[in-house]
Amino acid sequence: MRVAFVGKGGSGKTTVSALFARYVASLGDPVVAVDADINQHLALVLGLEEAPEPLGAHLTEIKELLRGSNPLIASAEAMVKTTPPGRGSRILRFDDLPYTVRTPEGPRLMATGPFSEDDLGVACYHSKVGAVELLLNHLVDGHGEYVVVDMTAGADSFASGLFTRFDLTFLVAEPTRQGVSVYRQYREYAADYDVPIAVVGNKVHGPDDVEFLREHVGDDLLTWMEHSTAVRAMEQGRPFTLDDLEPANAEALSVLVKAVDSREKDWVRFGHQAAEFHLRNARAWANERTGLDLSAQIDPGFVYGPASLDCRP
Ligand SMILES: Nc1ncnc2c1ncn2[C@@H]1O[C@H](COP(=O)(O)OP(=O)(O)OP(=O)(O)O)[C@@H](O)[C@H]1O
Ligand SMILES: [Mg+2]
């Protein structure tokens, strides 16, 4: 199952996604956390001194790996972030996800790599996140396996098809007007694409905060994290384990896990949208960039989901 954490800058995406990943690992389940944010911060919060090999530096290898022997994709150069899998492509199981490192508490970590100021708003930024989109497009995951993506702040996360690649998207929102404004934006995009979202309140100080969130996001409010002294202590460099987390916050994490576990995978929507975003991308810039008709990369005979593992080369 794949989950994304989105929300306003500073709302707590990195903190909550890291806590979620650690919590899942503490239950004994496999989890890969993915840092897809502009400011790469997840390694630190997961207790790693050094960030893993950045995906952005291995884009060509990733493309070579994924295109496998798919006859519709002539070379890595012909592959763009939305190029969908087809017959012959290398389909990944959860354990095949490349470029991950183990963090001290158990979650594995994968990172897009840092973005420089120059990357922002241009192709580079999107191609780094594009590695994540490609990997997710070629991944067949199931219940009890968790990919947790810490996304970039604000509306940037729906600049590509990436936001449709998840079984559930958690929108982290502080109980402030700005906090819920990202929710409104996201809700509209999500509704247009049938993307399931749930709001996780964060840094909640009391019943008035909960009331505020309820008023603005209604039933989309799944649960909330209280302002945490333990998290603050961790930020101050003091040792932290999940046992230090306040019981209400640990309970909130368990609510998140249950919400993910209760989702059914929708491989049909997944496949339709992979093709839809690829066509859109092809028309917008990718045909011109590659000098190819990229719509020909869509394999109408390819079946998404577990069935695609059977015809692995
Ligand atoms: N529940 C919480 N209790 C106390 N502090 C928190 C909580 N959640 C987040 N914080 C603190 O708020 C700050 C911002 O959190 P975090 O870095 O996770 O946000 P972010 O949404 O990932 O930010 P960015 O948009 O910069 O990536 C951090 O100092 C973090 O420790
Ligand atoms: Mg962050």
Structural features, described:
- There is one protein chain.
- The chain has 313 residues and is α/β, with parallel strands linked by helices.
- The chain has a single domain (2-308), classed as 3-Layer(aba) Sandwich (Rossmann fold), CATH 3.40.50.
- The chain is 38% helix and 15% strand.
- Strands 4-5-2-7-1-8-9-10 form an eight-stranded mixed beta sheet, with helices on both faces. A two-stranded parallel sheet has the order 3-6.
- Helix 5 (177-192) links the parallel strand 8 (168-173) and strand 9.
- Helix 1 (13-26) crosses helix 8 (247-261) and helix 3 packs parallel to helix 4 (123-137).
- The longest helix is centred in the C-terminal third of the chain and has 24 residues, at 267-290.
- It starts with a strand and ends with a helix.
- The mean pLDDT is 91.
- The structure holds adenosine-5'-triphosphate and magnesium ion.
- Magnesium ion is lined by residues 13-14, 37, 41, 150.
- Residues 13-14, 37, 41, 150 line the site of magnesium ion.
Which key phrases capture this entry?
single chain; 313 residues; alpha/beta; Rossmann fold; 8-stranded mixed beta sheet; two-stranded parallel ribbon; 10 helices; binds adenosine-5'-triphosphate; binds magnesium ion; CobQ/CobB/MinD/ParA_Nub-bd_dom
Structural class: alpha/beta
* Structural Rg: 19 Å
The CATH topology is Rossmann fold
What's the shape?
globular
Structure annotation, total helices: 10
Question: Would you tell me the overall average pLDDT?
Answer: 91
Give the domain tally: 1
CATH homology superfamily: P-loop containing nucleotide triphosphate hydrolases
Task: List cofactors, ions and other ligands.
Answer: adenosine-5'-triphosphate, magnesium ion
The CATH C-level class name: Alpha Beta
Record field, number of beta strands: 10
How would you write the strand order of the largest sheet?
4-5-2-7-1-8-9-10
What distance separates the N and C termini? 24 Å
Poorly predicted ranges? none
Major sheet: 8 strands, mixed
Q: Under the CATH scheme, which architecture would be assigned? A: 3-Layer(aba) Sandwich
Helicity level:
25-40%
What series of H and E elements makes up the topology? EHEHHEEEHEEEHEHEHHHH
Strand content: 5-15%
